[in-house]
Design a protein that fits this description.
The protein is α/β, with parallel strands linked by helices. The chain has two domains: about 160 residues, 3-Layer(aba) Sandwich (D-Maltodextrin-Binding Protein, domain 2); about 150 residues, D-Maltodextrin-Binding Protein, domain 2. It is built from 14 helices and twelve strands. Strands 1, 2, 3, 4, 6, 7, 8, 9 and 12 form a nine-stranded mixed beta sheet that branches. It has a three-stranded mixed beta sheet with strand order 5-10-11.
Length: about 350
């Protein structure tokens, strides 16, 4: 296990990270699987919640694609995905979806001499790098965005997600929105055919590969960059402003979210307007079965999520995630009360 993975794993002894670490030494009270994007905050919440409720969480941080497959197969109590499912997809699988947290995907680099936040990129240039059109760090297009910054003539090594990933979905959706060529040649999805580069599994895998590769650029959820002191990149956003990845820029993008009118809570927050908006912002979602086969397990999970909404905001902001506002939490809890039922057909959630 890499040093990066080890440091992140230490955040919560009760949370099990990754497919290779999916066996817990504890009896599992809540089982979940999916997105690596929210893993750092789920770890923090799990550690705090165990002290109040003596409930343990076994969460397999295997990527959004894996989480969707496991909840569809009913092998976990909940799945987690940063790629929201459409209303039709939810109906087809008889699932309920709701947002849990909002965060930012951040380009990170391993370039000699560069400090965190020293380098600025814009969407079209980032797309050209991942298309293989820009191959050196001292390329004229990068230099034009960074006047006065000494850039080495070092080859760029792109690092991307190798697994089905919501982080991948957010990153490629953004690049497809700002680059017609990226949209036509690569597209936007949880899994795409990259034209070149190195694959890493999970946010932790991309972080590790980027840290180990000279001249590399990758993309991770901001908590991974922050916890591991990675060299993050500033971005020029839709309004032409240069913004840093931080909670206020994620909040600015999240402020455009209209959850009340999002069918099945389907909402993508990349490339949002506003001078302070971080351009690669997204929500992380929980997926549960509408017709639960284990009402007790489902209720235990919902109680944990309710506790996290109510008590976890400070922990979330400490990792630069954006907590959901109270009015959205109220919408979500109404969804639980009407949409998630036990084997007897009765609602599981009563608000207690």
């Amino acid at each position: 296990m890499s040093m990066i993975t080890r440091r992140i794993s230490a955040a919560a002894c009760t949370l099990v990270l990754g497919a290779a670490y999916a066996m817990s030494v504890y009896a599992t009270d809540i089982s979940g699987a999916g997105a690596t994007f929210p893993y750092p905050i789920y770890a923090k919440w799990a550690e705090a919640y165990q002290k109040t409720a003596d409930v343990k969480l076994n969460y397999q941080s295997i990527g959004s694609g894996g989480g969707i497959k496991q909840i569809q197969a009913s092998t976990v109590t909940f799945g987690a995905s940063d790629k929201p499912l459409t209303a039709d997809e939810l109906d087809k699988s008889d699932l309920v979806q709701f947002p849990m947290i909002i965060g930012g995907v951040v380009p990170v680099v391993n370039v000699p001499g560069l400090k965190p936040g020293a380098l600025t990129l814009d969407g079209p240039t980032l797309a050209s790098i991942y298309l293989g059109e820009i191959t050196k760090w001292d390329d004229a297009k990068i230099k034009a965005l960074n006047p006065g910054l000494a850039l080495p003539s070092v080859a760029i090594a792109t690092v991307h997600r190798a697994d089905g990933s919501g982080t991948n979905f957010l990153f490629t959706t953004y690049l497809a929105a700002v680059s017609p060529k990226f949209k036509s040649d690569v597209g936007a999805d949880a899994s795409v055919e990259w034209p070149n580069g190195i694959g890493g599994k999970g946010n932790e895998g991309v972080a590790s590969m980027t840290a180990q590769t000279n001249g590399a650029i990758g993309y991770v959820e901001y908590a991974y960059a922050k916890q591991n002191n990675m060299t993050y990149v500033k971005m020029k956003n839709k309004d032409g402003s240069v913004v840093a990845p931080e909670i206020k820029s994620f909040q600015a993008a999240a402020g455009n979210a209209d959850w009340a009118h999002a069918n099945g809570y389907y909402l993508v927050l990349v490339d949002q307007p506003g001078k302070d908006s971080w351009p690669i912002t997204g929500a992380s979602f929980i997926l549960m079965q509408k017709a639960s086969k284990d009402a007790a397990a489902s209720l235990t999970a919902l109680k944990f999520f309710a506790w996290a909404y109510k008590n976890g905001a400070d922990m979330a902001t400490s990792l630069d995630y954006v907590p959901l506002p109270k009015n959205v939490v109220e919408l979500v809890e109404k969804t639980w009360a009407t949409s998630i039922k036990g084997p007897d057909g009765k609602p599981i959630w009563t608000g207690k």
